[in-house]
Each structure stands twice: as structure tokens, then as C-alpha cells.
Amino acid sequence: MKAVSYLLDVRWKAAAAAGLVALAGCGSSGGGLNAPKIGKAKSFALAGFEPAGTVKAGVPTTVSFHITQPSGATLTTFRTGAGPHTGVHLIFVRKDLSLIIHRHPPLQADGSVSQQVTFPTGGPWHVLVDVYPDLGANTLRNFQLTTDLDVSGAYRAVPLPPPSATTQTVDGDRFAIKLPKTIRSLRPQFFDISVTDAAGKAVTFGTWYGATAHAIFFQQGSLAYFHTHVCRPEATACTKAVAGSAIVGKADKPGQLQVGTLLPTGGTWKLFLQTKIGGKVLTVPYTLKVAS
């Protein structure tokens, strides 16, 4: 079983802190204070993750797991609804940040999660499970769990394109990004992306997983993560107040997306912008340099 790490969502800036008082005792053998034994901290965790071994590129693979609570019980209740902040976001990213797969898998009554995925290329892949539990007001609105997958096949790491590339053409549609002069970590900021078709006309966006667009960020090297959405003003289920809502972007004109960022650290980040145009989900990559 590969190691699983538990990460708090970076969109929650306020974290609860617990202070531990250390007790020290001095004495000779047979006397003094006996310090209490402190058990291992419990947290949410991925359990029963499959596949446990190497998978093949280009072959449909069923990825399955469940999530255990700090009590050890399986998590069976998730927030659901029409918006994008629901259930489980299952994200696979190749570790060189060249490729991403983003799914919202079905959730079973017993808490089990299963999703068929076809990895297009071999190499090391990072698996991120973004969880939205329904456990009442006194718990996190969402959190992340991670693991890794090895996909067989030829692999050569692809260098990230330079941050200077501001225009991308994907499936005939042109995406032109207008960034702030400096993107800074720990600061809410917005930037615009204009999208036109091959004829130069502003496109009409569809809806995918409850949002007009998804903006998924991974940091080069650490694979730190941030995910927010772009919403139409009338899409209240998308704009509803949740973690990260202060920087939810908007799409109030054809061909225009306003995207928000609140990245935790400086460095090089890869943005995967995902939106639906003409019935197709397009993934648009940008490399961003972020100042500390």
C-alpha cells in the first residue's frame, strides 16, 4: 500500500491549533512522574485503494477506494447538489504536470468510490482526492487525500513551457490570457481569459461538473494544489458560499472568463483551465510564475 498524505485545503486560511503542554519529571529510579502515553493522531485516510500495482497506459483501469474517518468508520455522507463543490473530485496529474484527468465519480451508499480511467501515457502519476463530507457544521467543508500510481509505458519528463506563453489554441479555439503584472502568493487576485473560435467570434460556454470553468493549479515539484471555479452570475449553486468562494470567478459575457487565484506559496505553477465549448471539454494549460 502506498503512503497516503492528508492535506488541508489551501483555500481555508484559518486552521485550528491545539497546544500540547509537555510535562517533565526528575527523580531517581523508582520515583518521579510517569508521563502519559499519547496515542497516534487519527485523521481521514484513503483505504482499500486499488489498483495497488502498476497499471497499463491506454487500457481502461478501475480506480476504487473508500475514506475512513478519524474514528475508523467509513465516510458515507457527502455534500451533494447541482454545484461543483460536491461529493468527491478525483484528479490525476502526471508528475511532470504535462497531463491531467479530472472526474467527479459516483458515490455508493456504503461510501465506496469507483471510477474507470484510461491513462494516456506511462510514467508516475499523482492522485488527489478532494473530499466534501457532510458531517455537520463542526468539520472541514473539504479536504484532500493523496497517493501515487505507476503507469507502465515509455516515459520522458516534459519540461514546462515558459510563463511567457499567453495565448493557446485548443481544438480550434483561441484562449488569450491577460495576467496581472505580478501574481503573488497568499493574495486573492483575478485575471481574464478571452476565448474566440476559429472565425474570431466569442464562444458560448457550456456547463461541466456544475461550473462554467474549472481552474486547477499544481505547483511544480511539490504538487501543492489549488482549485476554484468560474460561474455564471445566475448559477447560484456554483457561486454559493463555500471554501474558496471569495475568489470564485465569473463568466457574464460570451467568450469572457474571469479566473481567481489564491496560491499558498511562490514558485512555478501549472494552471489547467477546463471548460466546455460546443459539447467538448477542453483543457487549456498555462505556466505561471508566482512571487512569494
Task: Give the overall pLDDT as a whole number.
Answer: 87
Shape: globular
CATH architecture of the largest domain: Sandwich
Distance between the termini: 36 Å
The CATH topology of the largest domain is Immunoglobulin-like
**Considering the protein shown, what is the CATH homologous superfamily of the largest domain?**
Immunoglobulins
* Radius of gyration over C-alpha positions, nearest whole angstrom: 21 Å
User: Strand pairing plus helix content: what structural class?
Assistant: mainly beta
Structural account:
The protein has one helix spanning 236-239, and strands at 5-8, 45-50, 55-56, 61-68, 88-94, 100-103, 113-117, 123-131, 143-152, 167-170, 173-178, 183-184, 189-196, 213-219, 225-231, 249-253, 256-261, 267-277, 280-291. It is mainly β. The radius of gyration is 21 Å and the shape is globular. The strands form three sheets. A ten-stranded mixed β-sheet has the order 10-11-13-17-16-15-14-18-19-12. The protein is built from one helix and 19 strands. It folds into two domains: 5-13 and 37-152, Immunoglobulin-like (Sandwich), CATH 2.60.40.10; 167-291, Immunoglobulin-like. The longest helix is centred in the last third of the chain and has 4 residues, at 236-239. The model is unreliable at 1-32 (pLDDT under 50).
